[in-house]
Design goal:
The chain has 192 residues and is mostly helical. It is built from seven helices and no strands.
């Protein structure tokens, strides 16, 4: 979305004096960056991952609104499921996750086509965000956060060590008892 939005702004918005250029580019960039940062932070904090993924999702929703507003302001059509090209556009967007697939289109599509392609990508991305957030919620509910998992690992390790120590102490006591029995037996047999 970052590269597409940059091309859109250069092709269809004024070069100077239009705040939408900065806002749209920042929304696209913030959406991407918060996803990346959230996934990285998720290694140590599920809470932070959820927060940053939600911020990324919000940025893409803001971007979606900007594309919809552009269409409305310019009396262009927002394609819905009844539009003859809607299904084909959505299928293309679902099948392609590489800039190289979009690059040639980004230079040739009309403003209406471009915005509707971007809207399709925003909707697909939002659906993925929702699925990912549900996954994080389920994982957190079933396994807890990273701190809880780390505590469980430490506690489990300590319990294993304590159980091993108890087993060794019991084995040591049994061996001492057996040694004492054998020494007593030796004394009783008259051998020293």
């Amino acid at each position: 979305m970052v590269l597409l939005t940059d091309v859109f702004c250069k092709r269809f918005l004024p070069l100077y004096g239009d705040r939408r250029v900065d806002q749209m580019n920042m929304a696209a960039r913030c959406g991407k960056q918060n996803i990346v940062e959230g996934c990285e932070d998720g290694q140590t904090s599920t809470e932070m991952e959820v927060k940053l993924v939600n911020v990324g999702r919000s940025s893409f929703q803001e971007l979606r609104e900007d594309y919809e507003d552009y269409l409305k302001r310019n009396n262009l059509q927002v394609w819905d499921k009844n539009h003859p090209r809607f299904d084909k556009m959505v299928a293309f967007c679902r099948a392609n996750n590489d800039w190289q697939a979009y690059k040639p289109l980004s230079e040739t599509l009309s403003a209406e086509e471009f915005c509707n392609m971007a809207l399709s990508l925003c909707h697909i991305t939002d659906k993925m965000f929702c699925g990912y957030l549900k996954h994080l919620e389920k994982t957190f509910r079933e396994q807890g956060g990273i701190k809880e998992r780390m505590h469980a690992v430490r506690t489990g390790y300590r319990q294993e060590q304590e159980a091993r120590m108890r087993a060794l102490e019991a084995e040591n006591a049994a061996l001492k008892k057996r040694i004492a029995e054998l020494e007593e037996k030796l004394k009783g047999s008259g051998r020293d």
